[in-house]
Each structure stands twice: as structure tokens, then as C-alpha cells.
Sequence to fold (396 residues):
Amino acid sequence: MSLYASGSQTVGPYLHIGLTWLNTARIAGPGVKGEHVTVQGRLLDGDGVGVSDGLIEIWQANAEGKYVHPEDRQKKTLEKGFRGFGRIPTDAKGNFRFSTIKPGRVPGRGGKLQAPHLSVTVFMRGLLKQLATRVYFPGESANAQDPVLKLVPAARRATLVAQRKSKGVLEWNIVLQGKDETVFFDF
Amino acid sequence: MSKLHGYRRFHPGTQPEYDFPFYASTAKRHPTQPLVIVPQTLSEITGPVFGTDDLKPADNDLTRQHKGDPIGERIIVSGRVLDENGRPMPHTLVEVWQANAAGRYRFITIRPGEYPWRNHYNAWRPAHIHFSLFGHAFLTRLVTQMYFPGDPLLPYDPMYMSIPDEKARVRLISQFDWENTIPEQALGYRFDIVLRGREATPMDDSPGE
Fold:
């Protein structure tokens, strides 16, 4: 049997009605192993105005670089209380903030390790299909060899790397249009 | 480590473009640079797994989540969640504004109304229900809308019309479901959702251990 995937439609303006029950801004609680970080930033539209009705979702591996998923068959351990999923709505000014741990390195194609990263999905009114991007970590030597970052034009790579704001706090913005337009992926 | 099994790319015409002038809000909210095409890795073919623990018992009855009976026509919406190979997708979280249910789904609600909006002169959204699904991978994530058969507003709706291929568009319209209709209580509607399916063969260069 052969079917085509259903068409995507915008999340619309009333996403708060249906999706808030799964809001999770604390992806990793204090007991979870790894380097704890807070990631904060803004979701900005083509006028540089904060998107007040946006939603981002995060998917990430644990500190050892293992995903809580049956298809991750690496011989690494999982811990209770860590799923690796976050859902964060933007506030009235388009800000978002979440706390988590820096994930370990996960394998890419051909067994080559990827640099630590968070996978991010963006939803909002005015967006007919979600956008997918990644957050990489500042000062991480593995970034230079990351097989996915290498596919991004060099001048745009910085849009995927968070900046260190203060101890344990990273800043990363999602810019929809313009000079600093964030890189979005298709796979 | 056994080989990872990747997913097919979307069939041309079945998905909306980000820049779609008929839907005015896309103007400042679409990427202007082309998306960067990257290989599927473990990061994309895994995704959050949800269990029944995440749900509450009455989550599939939207008419019982508030005090008193809601006003409107009670309907039952049910359907299957399949992949592009026609296989049912069990353990898939289906979120509906505003219920949360799980391969086959079913919920009771009130038939939504049409409402005016400011996209263009005399703009009305057709009756619709929002659906959000995860599938089994980060890349199978889908947010969509279900419409109702015979709705005269559909050809005027930018969101519905944003799906280029007519056959793909029509699949967002539910079908009247006589078999699931409850006499004197609720009309039934059926809406099957298809998520991205696997490639026929595993990826050649597996990620390794």
C-alpha cells in the first residue's frame, strides 16, 4: 500500500488551547547527569518583532549521547526522569527560555560523531509547516568537524551556535528573515 | 548496531510552501533563504515517546472537560494514523484542540463553527479541528487541520488552499461516518492521518555504534 503523507497546516492562533498541557521548559531536572544550562532567546519575525504566539519543541540526547527511543541501540545508559523533550511557548514579547543539560555526541552517517546539539521545531501562526533547526554549543571543539554544520554555508553557521551569556546561561535566537536569518533544515 | 531505517521525502505538491501570499501572515514569517538539505541521522529518526501515563481518563471527550453541557452539535471523530506504507502507527500521540488521545483514535466533541478573520475582505475560516501528531521520529512531526465534507468555505480558505495538489488537499476533509454515528446523539466523522513512511531499504551508511 502506498500513501502520501497528510498535508501540514498552520498551528494557528489558538495553539494555547490544545498544546499547553505538554509544556515543558525544564527538560532536565537538577538530578539529571550532565552540564546544566539555561537556553534563552527570542523568536523574531521579518520586522524584527518578537512572535508572541509561537511554540518551540526541543528533542535531544542525554549527557552520554543516547536518545530515549527504541531505535537508538547504542550501548549507553538511560536515566529515569529524562525524556529529552521540551515544549516552550513564546511570551508576549517573543521570548522563550528552557533549562536542560548539554547532550553528549551522537553518531551521524557512517558512524561519524556529531557535535552536541539540540533539535528544534518551530510552530506559529503564519507558518504553514513547521521549521526545523538545531542549537549547537559555544566553545565546543567538535563543532568544526560536525557533518551537519559542514553542509551549512560558512557565513550562516553562526546562526546555529548559541552564545554564552553568563555562567550556565546561553543565548540563541530564532530569526525568520533578514541578515541573521536562522538556518532551517530539510531532511 | 543494526542499520537505521530512514524516511521518504515528501511527495511534490502535498505540502504547503512557506511563502504563500494568499495567507497574509506568512509574509513576515517565512524563511527567505532556502532550507539546507541534510542527511537523516539518529537525531531525526528518533523522537519523543509518550505513554498512556501522560494522559488523563476523560481526555478523549472534549465535551466533558468543562462544567455543564457545551452548546452545539455533538460529534464523534475517529480515524487511523498510518504511515505512507499503509501501516498503522501505534503509540502515536494525537493532540486535538483540545483533547489529547492515542494508532487509532476517537474523540467526542462539538462540531466547530465557522468564524470571521482579517486575512482578506469577507474572510471566514471553514469549520476545522486542529490535530498535532508526533509519530515515531522528530521528522514525522505533523500539525494539520481536519475539515468537514461539503463546506462551501473551503475554496476561499488560504490555509486549505495552501496544499498545491488537489488530491492531497481533499484528504484533509473528513468523511461522514454513518457506522460510528450514535442514534439521536452524535454524528460520526472519519479522518485518517498519514505520517511520513520509511524508505524501502535501510540507509547504506549506518551510524555505527
